[in-house]
Amino acid sequence: MFKLEVKKIALKSIVFSGYPFVVLIFSLLTTLFSLGDVVSPGEGFFSAMISVLLYALFTTAAVVLYSLLAAFIYNTLTNFGLKGIRVSLTEVEEDSAASEEVAPAEQSEENK
What we know:
Blueprint: E1 2-6, H1 11-15, H2 19-33, H3 35-38, H4 45-79, E2 85-89, H5 96-111
Antiparallel strand pairs: 1-2
Helix pairs in contact: 2-4
């Protein structure tokens, strides 16, 4: 069993990773589900789509900025001596599906 503690979160990893893209996808989905709140009834199709995209982009920016703020506060508190998030990891054996894939390759090498 391995015990790890997260001491610092790289702020660049929040911005330059897949995280903002995932937040954007969820923002688009929630915007489409709440379409009545974002789009006015008299708007045309293209103006409605622009409203949806802008709302999703602003929501994404807000969530990423809040995440950056939370990571900055976390890093500051752990630098002052507070304990970080602790994670316990255990090593597991390969599942049977993975070992079945390797078995035919090993048999062909043995036959040579």
